[in-house]
Amino acid sequence: MEVKVLNTAGQETGRTVSLNDQIFGIEPSDHAIYLDVKQIMANNRQGTHKSKERGEVAGSTKKLKKQKGTGGARAGSIKSPVFRGGGRIFGPRPRNYGFKLNKKVKALARMSALSYKAKEDAILVVEDFSFEAPKTRELVKISNNLKITDKKSLFVLPDENKNIYLSSRNLQGVSVVIASELNTYDILNAKKVVVLESSVNKIEELFKI
Fold it and tell me: Which of 99, 111, 194 is closest to 155 using CA atoms?
């Protein structure tokens, strides 16, 4: 698949890059995407929820009333879950929601997500650029030139670039990620994926194709 390379002014440079069909042109697997996104969302959960059970709430341990002869149900503690202020039955406990997912399934999910974006013509290849210092207005200018200002966008960099990252941090709907950290959720969550020219080879190296 041949894609035209644009410059930061949004104009064609006259060059093209070839997107590997084994990555950007496969038959997408919806189930692999589902599993990968599910794992990403599960790993982001803190899992720190906790409620007190009857052995943890504050209260007297004195028997409330005699065992028999009251005409009501027997009761041994004010901390019982049947009373107001008592402990909770089977309440949430801290836990880790993460689960294992095979590397090949994760790779298939990412390639499926990229293939979906390629079919939608939602991938833009832009020549490499950098900032001498963090400048939000410069990244806004590039977004305007690429006509993606009103769309969620994901910029894929070949390597870590602190200035570009800091320039995007205050922009709503703009995310920056390096090629080696691409994940299925970020790809699908973006309306436009802006891939820097050098990142194309990095993505191919990521999948060892």
Answer: 194
Q: Are residues 38 and 131 in the same domain?
A: yes
pLDDT in tens, 23-68: 999 999 999 999 999 999 999 999 999 999 999 999 998 999 999 9
Judge contact between 79 and 72, C-beta under 8 A: no
Range of the domain at 56: 51-91
Q: Do 86 and 103 fall into the same domain?
A: no
Nearest residue to 176 via CA among 132, 142, 207: 142
Indicate if 58 and 128 belong to the same structural domain: no
∠ at Cα 198 (196, 201), nearest 5°?
Answer: 120
Supply the CATH number for residue 152's domain: 3.40.1370.10
Phi, psi angles (nearest 5°) of residue 21: -65, -20
Q: The dihedral of CA 180, 8, 117, 136: what is its sign?
A: positive
Stretch 9-22: mean pLDDT, rounded?
91
Residue 84 has pLDDT above 60, yes or no: yes
Strands 2-6 and 12-18, by their bridges, are antiparallel
Whether residue 85 sits in one domain with residue 17: no
- pTM for this structure? 0.83
* Among candidate residues 91, 112, 144, the one where a domain is terminated: 91
Secondary-structure percent of the chain, ordered helix, strand, coil, rounded to 5 = 35, 15, 50
Distance CA 114, CA 91 (A): 41
